[in-house]
Design a protein that fits this description.
Blueprint lengths: L5 H17 L7 H13 L3 H8 L4 H12 L19
Helix pairs in contact: 1-2, 1-4
């Protein structure tokens, strides 16, 4: 069985984006953002959260992993039927 980290890195990016959306250096702390927004949605410990937030270049790691495994990042909505196909 082959293992790749694409979904894990996508999850990490979602966590970092959620943190950036709610974190304000003058008003909030990472602990407060984790308690109010991250833990209820992603269910991970504060220690793991700090490791994820401190990971540099997640976008580059995700691109490299997708390139290595031949994944396309943006397929858009897949169609069940082709255009003009009436099912006949």
């Amino acid at each position: 069985m082959a293992y790749n980290r694409v979904n894990l890195l996508r999850r990490y990016l979602a966590i970092v984006e959620e943190t950036n959306r709610h974190y304000d250096p003058d008003v909030t702390t990472y602990k407060g953002v984790w308690r109010k927004y991250i833990y209820p949605k992603f269910h991970l410990s504060y220690q793991r959260y700090m490791v994820i937030v401190g990971t540099p270049n997640l976008e580059g790691m995700l691109e490299a992993e997708e390139k290595a495994h031949g994944k396309v990042t943006n397929l858009g909505q897949l169609k069940l039927f082709e255009e003009g196909d009436c099912g006949n």
